[in-house]
TrEMBL record:
GO biological process: response to amino acid
Pfam family, one: HTH_AsnC-type
InterPro entries: ArsR-like_HTH, AsnC-type_HTH_dom, Dimeric_a/b-barrel, Tscrpt_reg_AsnC-like, Tscrpt_reg_AsnC/Lrp_C, WH-like_DNA-bd_sf, WH_DNA-bd_sf
Recorded GO CC terms: cytosol
Entry GO MF terms: sequence-specific DNA binding
Segments forming domain HTH asnC-type: 13-73
Protein name: Transcriptional regulator
Species annotation: Marinithermofilum abyssi
PANTHER family: LEUCINE-RESPONSIVE REGULATORY PROTEIN, TRANSCRIPTIONAL REGULATOR AZLB
Keywords: DNA-binding, Transcription, Transcription regulation
C-alpha cells in the first residue's frame, strides 16, 4: 500500500478513501478489483466508496483533454474590472462564452479572472474586441497570455 502524508485539509476522507483517490488520480481507469487487491479490501468496498465520494462531490472521474491537441493553442488569463452592481450579470454572460474555461471571483482591482482558450491570436483578438469589450458593466480588461506552462497537475492527494 502506498504511503501518504497526513493531510489535515482532507480530514473528511479516511485512509482507505485517500488511497482510493490516489490510485484513481494516477489512473482513473484502474479497475476497482486491482485497487481492492492493493488495499486488501473487497471490490464492493471500493465501488461503494467511489460512488459515495462521487455523490458527495469529492471525486469526479473525467477525461482531461489536452487543449493543444484539439487545436486550442492560446491560453490567456483575463482580469476584468466590473461595476460592482453588474458582477452577476457579467458572469452570466461570460458563462455562455465557449472560449471561457473558468471564471473566478477575486480580490483587488480586478474582481473577476477568466481562463480563456482560443485556437490562435486572431481568435483571441476577436474574443476580446467583439465579445468582452461589448459586455455592459466591464470597465477594464487586463489580458495576460500564457507563454509556457511550467507546471500543470490534477492530482491533489499525496
Amino acid at each position: 500500500m502506498e504511503d501518504i502524508k497526513n493531510n489535515s485539509w482532507c480530514h473528511e476522507l479516511d485512509e482507505i478513501d485517500r488511497q482510493i483517490v490516489i490510485f484513481l488520480e494516477k489512473n482513473a481507469r484502474m479497475p476497482f478489483t486491482k485497487i481492492a487487491e492493493k488495499l486488501g479490501v473487497s471490490e464492493r468496498t471500493v465501488r461503494i466508496r467511489v460512488a459515495q465520494m462521487q455523490e458527495d462531490g469529492i471525486l469526479s472521474l473525467v477525461g482531461v483533454v489536452n487543449p493543444i491537441k484539439v487545436g486550442l493553442n492560446v491560453q490567456t488569463f483575463v482580469h476584468l474590472s466590473v461595476q460592482p452592481n453588474r458582477i452577476e450579470e457579467v458572469v452570466s454572460q461570460l458563462k455562455e462564452m465557449e472560449e471561457v474555461r473558468w471564471i473566478a471571483l477575486t480580490t483587488g482591482e480586478y474582481p473577476l479572472m477568466l481562463d480563456v482558450l482560443t485556437r490562435d491570436y486572431d481568435d483571441l483578438s476577436d474574443f476580446v474586441m467583439n465579445k468582452l469589450n461589448k459586455i455592459e458593466g466591464v470597465d477594464r480588461t487586463n489580458v495576460v497570455n500564457v507563454l509556457k506552462k511550467m507546471k500543470s497537475r490534477f492530482n491533489f492527494m499525496r
